[in-house]
Write a structure and sequence with these properties.
Layout: E1 7-13, H1 17-33, E2 36-42, H2 48-59, E3 66-69, H3 79-85, H4 97-105, H5 113-124, E4 133-137, H6 144-153, E5 157-161, H7 168-173, E6 177-180, E7 198-201, E8 205-206, E9 212-213, H8 218-221, E10 227-228, H9 235-254
Parallel strand pairs: 1-2, 1-3, 4-5, 4-6, 6-7, 7-10
Antiparallel strand pairs: 8-9
Helix pairs in contact: 1-9, 5-6, 5-9
Bound molecules: guanine.
Guanine is lined by residues 68-71, 93, 113-114, 142, 239.
Length: 257
């Protein structure tokens, strides 16, 4: 309408197969919604300086509104320094400290893609959060921590579990809404789930046969809960739709629209 096409730059370093799939899906989504996408596929040998230089170039590129550096980066690269180098206005992942801080305060421009996609799913199915026991398994900066914060913003009573949590099964069994973001195949078993709970599976794992699966033992949990998200096809597409929303918002902010 304003003659402006939102633009997303996706940076991938090295050849992690899962990252390759995610990046391809992000590029495809741009095509579907009519955004411009640029892929920067760098070799695993890329230095910190080279990566920072690319981020700086993208920060200054007026046709690029969003910059996404796919994580994880190869070991020798400092992901924190790379994220902090992204202009917060172009940080469509909402990983930069400025954006993380704004989320904590509840005054944000961008929400992190996966937690925001989960909230949107809960809203779409009219699943109430206010006053509910919400248990998040996992405390990553990408999913666990921001997920807990978004549930808290909607007045959930939130517990974050992690590898040192004692009595994990008992804690999970109290959950009305259980979010699994552990990164371990079929980690959440039926005995950890309350009858009628809402189970959200953020995992992208491989089972013993190399088949894609989630953090939840779907087959055994599905009959016990009121809602459950499948892997693939549950949370993943929601993550990507939030990324598109964030890219559009970044474009509007940068063009004062
Ligand atoms: N790696 C796993 N999930 C994500 C994500 O949402 N964004 C980026 N940049 N990397 C990821």
């Amino acid at each position: 309408m304003h003659g402006i096409t939102p633009g997303l730059a996706v940076v991938i370093v090295g050849d992690d197969p899962a990252s390759r799939v995610y990046v391809n899906n992000k590029k495809k989504a741009c095509e579907v919604v009519g955004f411009k996408s640029e892929e920067y596929a760098l070799p695993a040998s890329t230095t910190q300086e080279e990566l920072l230089e690319l981020v700086n170039t993208l920060n200054n590129k007026s046709d690029i509104n969003g910059i996404l550096v796919q994580l994880p980066l190869p070991e020798h690269l400092d992901d924190k320094a790379v994220i902090e180098a992204i202009n917060p206005q172009k940080d469509v992942d909402a990983f930069h400290a400025v954006n993380v801080g704004k989320i904590m305060l509840g005054e944000y421009d961008f929400l992190p893609c996966t937690p925001s996609g989960v909230m949107e799913m809960l809203h779409a199915y009219d699943i109430p959060v206010s006053g509910k026991n919400c248990v998040v398994i996992g405390r990553s900066n990408i999913v666990g921590k921001p997920m807990a914060m978004l549930l808290l913003h909607e007045n959930g009573t939130v517990t974050i579990c992690h590898s040192r949590t004692q009595n994990l099964t008992e804690v999970c069994k109290e959950a009305d809404i259980l979010v699994a973001a552990v990164g371990k195949p079929k980690f959440v078993t039926a005995d950890m789930v309350k009858e009628g709970a809402v189970v959200i599976d953020v995992g992208m794992d491989r089972d013993e046969n190399g088949k894609l699966c989630g953090d939840v033992d779907f087959e055994n949990v599905k009959d016990k809960c009121s809602y459950i998200t499948p892997v693939p096809g549950g949370v993943g597409p929601m993550t990507i739709s939030t990324l598109m929303k964030n890219t559009l918002k970044a474009c509007k902010i940068q063009n004062n629209l």
